[in-house]
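User: Design a sequence. Structure:
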């Protein structure tokens, strides 16, 4: 619950700060990409040698990042773009969110692994 409160509050504040009224939902787009990268990094980091207790993994991963990112807003914003006959922008939003989200989750995962390997060497 605590993680959810801070994740939702952070999403709202960052979304308001990024908000650009050009039709493209840049705030949600960037927030979701940040969340993909961080969750990919965090869950990999947390799983390495039991560095983080499971309670904190839930607090940060499920609570904070789960509410910081938002699939429901992404879905509604996509529908809104389609309803406004901004088909290309809607398709671009879906494709860019999906592809870049997967890429950033992978990069976060790889970063956590590289830090782990670097720690083993030192």
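Assistant: Done.
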């Amino acid at each position: 619950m605590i993680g959810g409160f801070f994740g939702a509050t952070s999403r709202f504040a960052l979304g308001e700060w990024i908000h650009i009224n050009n039709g493209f939902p840049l705030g949600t787009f960037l927030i979701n990409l940040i969340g993909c990268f961080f969750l990919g990094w965090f869950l990999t980091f947390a799983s390495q040698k039991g560095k983080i207790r499971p309670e904190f993994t839930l607090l940060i991963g499920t609570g904070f990042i789960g509410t910081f990112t938002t699939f429901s807003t992404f879905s509604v914003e996509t529908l809104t773009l389609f309803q406004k006959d901004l088909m290309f922008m809607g398709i671009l939003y879906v494709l860019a969110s999906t592809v870049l989200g997967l890429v950033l989750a992978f990069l976060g995962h790889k970063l956590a692994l590289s830090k782990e390997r670097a720690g083993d060497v030192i």
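Helices lie at 2-18, 26-47, 54-68, 71-83, 87-121. The chain has one domain: 2-7+27-117.
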